[in-house]
Design goal:
Layout: E1 2-6, H1 13-27, E2 31-36, E3 50-54, H2 68-83, E4 87-91, H3 93-108, E5 116-120, H4 123-126, H5 135-144, E6 147-150, H6 153-162, E7 169-171, E8 199-204, H7 213-224, E9 229-234, H8 240-249, E10 256-260, H9 265-269, E11 274-277, H10 286-293, E12 298-301, E13 316-319, H11 324-336, H12 338-352, H13 357-379
Parallel strand pairs: 1-2, 1-4, 2-3, 4-5, 5-6, 6-7, 8-9, 8-11, 9-10, 11-12, 12-13
Helix pairs in contact: 2-3, 3-5, 7-11, 10-12, 11-12
Length: 380
């Protein structure tokens, strides 16, 4: 099948999932066309089955904000016509579903009918899409999609609560590819990041307020009171500078390493003992899943879709949002005893295997096939 995939090309979860999905589909023989404003960070190679079409947005003094939605719609129309695309899969409601619908309507004027699948990832619904300015457009775009999927049961319920949805939403969870984490790195030595007696704690995110970055620092500070440890902070975002200042205020700056953005998450996680995710909101918790496939137990909040990934008392522990004391207690329970730590590591890996892409990919392919058949039956 010839499939066009629209996504954000950045380090965010939706872009990562969309890119990995496209690569896996290409490996299964589908012809994949990524349509976005630059090459996705996880898309390393183009080939016979993977193509990239960059959206160019002309700059005009007339526009205070350049109209990306119009440029994207036009690029989709051109790409679908030129390459005979059979199905459109957009990730993130804003602005991709809206732009996809406009492209569909333009194509219908020329007698070309194409089904659109919209995948909801989280903040496009809970933070952005629910804003009064965007809510009507998001509701419209979702309802005009032939099929709607989302990454967790919690996000499905939020979507149904926030919007007047007229169709079913299918839950297809995020995924990882276990084969990409089966390599043992010869340079993966703990001495690169910590002393032999120190535990290594890791946090990976886009450093937005919703991630509760100060809580990460405070949890680590609590751990330091009991055992030697190092904290590795991976990512960039508006809360990073505040986090660095907080480390200095608490007198732990020399114990915390800020690495910035990285495309080598597996190399960082391979020597980690614990992963912290105290977010205020997470539609799924892809970062937690990536930690777990690297045999890293997770200390997290119990919000959103995280409990669907991090199993309390098995792969790590869940606490109420902002309950730093409880998170510290749970972290120490795992870290203090080597046998307990090893058990949680094994459990984390075992649970993560349930989300292997080879278990999830057939779910998407079934959605594609049904959408294609149902849409063309209704049209012809």
């Amino acid at each position: 099948m010839k499939i066009a995939i629209v996504c954000y090309p950045t380090f965010g979860g939706s872009g990562v999932v969309a890119t990995e999905l496209g690569i896996a589909l290409a490996n299964r023989g589908h012809e994949i066309h990524f349509v976005t404003y630059k090459q996705p960070v996880r898309l390393e190679l183009l080939g016979n089955n993977i193509h990239l079409h960059e959206v160019q947005v002309p700059e005009y003094p007339l526009f205070h904000y350049q109209p990306y939605e119009l440029a994207l719609s036009s690029k989709l129309v051109d790409t679908i016509k030129l390459f005979g695309i059979e199905l459109l899969h957009v990730h993130y409601a804003i602005p991709h579903a809206y732009a996809g619908y406009m492209a569909k309507k333009i194509l219908e004027e020329e007698g070309i009918y194409i089904p659109m699948i919209t995948t909801l990832h989280g903040t496009d619904i809970t933070l952005v899409g629910n804003h009064p300015f965007y809510k009507p457009a998001v509701t419209f775009s979702i309802n005009k999609s032939e099929v709607v999927t989302c990454v967790s049961a919690d996000l499905k319920q939020n979507t149904l609560d926030f919007f007047e949805i007229e169709k079913d939403i299918e839950v297809i969870p995020n995924f990882i590819d276990k084969r990409k984490y089966s390599i043992e790195f010869t340079d993966c030595e703990r001495s690169l990041m910590a002393n032999e007696d120190e535990k290594i704690i890791t946090h990976i995110s886009n450093f937005r307020k919703v991630k509760h970055i100060p809580d990460v620092i405070k949890i680590f500070h609590g751990i330091l009171h009991e055992i030697p440890a190092r904290l590795v902070m991976v990512g960039e975002g508006p809360e990073k500078e505040k986090a660095e200042l907080l480390c200095e205020e608490l007198g732990i700056a020399e114990k915390v390493v800020f690495l910035g953005q990285s495309s080598e998450i597996d190399r960082i996680l391979c020597f980690s003992d614990l992963f912290l995710l105290p977010s205020k909101s997470e539609s799924f918790g892809l970062a937690a899943l990536e930690a777990m496939i690297n045999k890293v137990p997770v200390i997290s909040s119990n919000t959103g879709g995280i409990p669907e990934v991090n199993i309390h008392g098995v792969t790590g522990f869940l606490s109420n949002v902002g309950d730093i004391q409880d998170m510290v207690k749970n972290a120490l329970y795992i870290l203090k005893d080597p046998k307990t730590l090893e058990t949680f590591k094994k459990n984390a890996y075992k649970e993560a295997l349930k989300f292997d892409i080879h278990n999830i990919l057939p779910m998407y392919e079934a959605v594609y096939e049904n959408a294609y058949k149902d849409h063309y039956k209704s049209v012809y």
